Amino acid sequence: xxxxxxxxxxxxxxxxxxxxxxxxxxxxxxxxxxxxxxxxxxxxxxxxxxxxxxxxxxxxxxxxxxxxxxxxxxxxxxxxxxxxxxxxxxxxxxxxxxxxxxxxxxxxxxxxxxxxxxxxxxxxxxxxxxxxxxxxxxxxxxxxxxxxxxxxxxxxxxxxxxxxxxxxxxxxxxxxxxxxx
Length: 181
Fold this sequence. Notes:
alpha+beta; Trna Endonuclease, Chain: A, domain 1; five-stranded mixed sheet; 3 helices
């Protein structure tokens, strides 16, 4: 006669006993941290505004430069579409429409040009990220039949005030192997 295995709980070896660990749910919050990260960040931003804490200097300068570049390009006749478009691949500072062309604008703000021009900071890696972000933006618009270009706006500051703005239209092309249109 064959030996039959009896149903029921099997004996467990102490060595391989499952350990019960408390894990946090996919949202990233648990009993210890009851708020999701997005809400926590929002609460910190509200507290910072109410208590009067200032942002770091480089962020304030960047914001000032983006506002100045936006005003400058609007005066030049471009139509503003959006600012700070973010994807998982990076961020585009400003997006404008110039007739039938979309202009993806990178703003570089500097307090001096002693070392190098601000546009020199847009290296190959940055151009690749901007290209990917631009393609993501176009994908969200269902790939319209428009021309695209990448502009750089250099904003130079003196004593916290805008001294000079330089617009470099069509500063670089879409990074190979990508093409659009």
